[in-house]
Specification:
This protein is of the alpha+beta class and about 80 residues long. It is about 60% helix and about 15% strand. It contains 2 helices and 3 strands; from the N terminus they run ββαβα. Strands 1-2-3 form a 3-stranded antiparallel sheet, with no helix packed on it. A hairpin with a 2-residue loop joins β1 and β2. Mean pLDDT is about 60; it is low at about 5-25.
């Protein structure tokens, strides 16, 4: 069913098997539009932790890549020294 709009809230009437047997219909209310900033602020710690994990992963990958390149360059330098 489509939600009905009333006073800045959306009220959703969920039809479940319980509705058919006369049980209470569940109402779902969403936050008003002017409370979106509060919602974003509540989600900020989650986003920050995900960003921190991504940064940590990139730093580890860069370190591994740098170690691999330096090891390769040492092997190459040693090889060229033996040729000369």
């Amino acid at each position: 069913m489509r939600p009905r709009k009333r006073l800045g809230y959306e009220v959703n009437f969920l039809s479940t098997a319980g509705d058919l047997w006369g049980e209470k219909v569940e109402h779902v209310k969403r936050e008003p539009r002017n409370d979106r900033k509060a919602t974003y602020l509540r989600l900020l710690p989650t986003f920050a932790s995900a960003l921190q994990e991504k940064t940590r992963t990139c730093a580890s990958f860069t370190k591994i890549l740098a170690n691999y390149i330096s090891e390769e360059s040492l092997i190459t330098a040693d090889y060229h020294k033996n040729i000369i």
